[in-house]
Write a structure and sequence with these properties.
By secondary structure, this protein is mainly α. 58% of the residues lie in helices and 8% in strands.
Length: 172
Amino acid sequence: MPNTSADHMIEQVAKAMRAKRRELIARPIADIWSELATTAIEALRDSPSVDQMREDRAHEIVAAINSWAAVTLGLDVSMGGLEGVSLAEMLEAKEIVETRNRRAADAAEASGGSYSISVVPDDRLVAAAYCLDHYPTGNEAILCVPRPSFNGTHAALGLVAITPDDENDDEA
């Protein structure tokens, strides 16, 4: 899993501090605080912003979730990885991409220009991708609640293993 934004920033600052250490080691600590702070800020100035890194990671997560839906629809696409991504991170990623889409639309409206947006998964798709990635399949419902409808008295939700019909046809 890629480093978080904070981890990346810490690595950048630590690297800059190590490089500056030799120069400052012989001086009293009280005399070097401002130089250390300046070194840290300069190290971060050249790295991507936390917001940009969060937005980039959010797009990766949303694209992975969307790719799972595309495979379900029969499209020949590579399924993105969601290993180690929590449900909270998935929902936050969706929110970040939605916010970016709104900002792009607002900016285009103000300038009269065009814009592009990213496809954002529905909450049900986010939850389904999370469950499929984090829980094993089984033969029992995870939830089964009374919910009368024309085709049954209960609604159930579970993860079941199946073999699609088109795969069975290939074996015949």
